[in-house]
Write a structure and sequence with these properties.
alpha/beta, single chain, 7-stranded mixed β-sheet, 29% helix
Length: 368
């Protein structure tokens, strides 16, 4: 594809502006926040870079075509005329997912059948051929064709073997770190670290390494993919090596063991110090002030909500007494639990969806 096309980076609703800031900082200078994500123009190499570098994106879609369509026969004809071979290898198995909104064509299954039939006229998929998802949106009689170029969701970084209870996805963690103003220039501590996601992301940001460096992507199975150029792009990854230590603790010894293994697989074991201890034993690390960030239980999936008030009160007491000069970022679904810490939180942004509930990031300025 010689001319630029639209690329759509999906994110959690409510995080569009944060992802847009990241995209612009990463070099996608024409990025714009839209409902559900961020759009920017580019070529296939831009798609590769977006998958490789954008920490807060859930998936990267390449919008390969658009056309007006008002009835199924017209969709059948235009889908048959589309240059599918420019995008898919002949052996590719393409799954077709259609959504219809405010359009003459309203039967999603019938629309998917028409497009699938058009694909079979061009492709000869094999049983063991690559599988790629085609996302089709028919809205206000405009049909938009997009390829999911990521494959597995982008929060799967490719190195995490242990996952704790009620985990938070790496993509969302990265966005919360950005909202806290974290740039890799300070230490980070998580006193309820679980599998270590906040610390792994923070340490990864500090090293300046690409979050997708350990995984594969669906775009590697597409017709425009050029292995040599992709190899050269990955070989050019930077490593800033900002020298900060990251600290994680948890009262669950199994979580500490698993988090330590995750850090080793991510080549970050020399940067993250894990300790098996209770919250009341938490002490301030030597060195510069930094960021305390955590996602404690809030009773929806882990813990009895009524019994958690004491935990949050202890958290607030420990931080106020021992962490002067440190900022705090606290993620919870319950305002009353956050208030139980008695920490001086700044005004909060709107809650965002997470695992069927809505969570909020509570932040402080440096504690007095």
């Amino acid at each position: 594809m010689s001319k630029p096309f639209e690329i759509f980076a999906i994110t959690v609703p409510g995080m569009e502006e944060t992802l847009c800031d990241e995209a612009i900082e990463a070099g996608f200078k024409n990025a714009q926040a839209v409902p559900g994500g961020v759009t920017f123009m580019g070529h296939w190499t831009t798609v590769w870079k977006a998958n490789l570098w954008l920490r807060g994106a859930t998936r990267i879609l390449a919008r390969i075509g658009q056309f007006r369509v008002f009835h199924l026969a017209e969709l059948d004809r235009k889908a048959s005329e589309f240059d599918w071979a420019d995008h898919f290898k002949p052996s590719t198995r393409v799954t077709v997912d259609v959504t219809c909104k405010n359009s003459k064509i309203y039967h999603q299954g019938a629309a998917a059948e028409r497009i699938s039939t058009a694909l079979t006229k061009v492709l000869s998929p094999t049983q063991d051929g690559p599988v790629v998802a085609l996302k089709v949106r028919i809205e206000n009689n405009l049909c938009t064709l997009s390829i999911d170029t990521s494959g597995a969701p982008l929060h799967r970084r490719g190195f995490k073997s242990f996952v704790g209870k009620a985990p938070m996805r790496e993509t969302l963690v990265a966005l919360f770190l950005r909202q806290c103003g974290y740039t890799g220039d300070e230490p980070v501590l998580d006193p309820m670290c679980g599998s270590g996601t906040f610390l792994l992301e923070a340490a990864d940001i500090a090293t300046g390494r690409a979050p997708g460096r350990y995984r594969s992507f669906a775009f590697e199975q597409l017709a425009p993919f050029q292995p040599d150029r992709w190899a050269a792009l990955k070989a050019d990854l930077s490593d800033t090596q900002k020298q900060h230590t990251f600290y994680g603790s948890d009262r669950n010894e199994g979580a500490i063991t698993g988090a330590t293994q995750n850090a080793k697989r991510a080549d970050l074991a020399d940067r993250i110090h894990f300790t098996h201890q209770s919250l009341s034993d938490l002490t301030r690390p030597n060195g510069p002030n930094g960021l305390v960030i955590l996602n404690p239980p809030y009773g929806d999936r882990i813990g009895d909500k009524k019994r958690l008030f004491g935990l949050y009160a202890t958290l607030g007491k420990v931080l106020k007494e021992r962490f002067a000069g440190w900022r705090v970022g606290l993620v919870t679904a319950e305002r009353q639990l956050a208030q139980a810490t008695e920490l001086p939180f700044k005004p909060q942004s709107a809650p965002i969806p997470h695992g069927g509930i809505r969570i909020t990031l509570y932040q402080t300025d440096p504690l007095p």
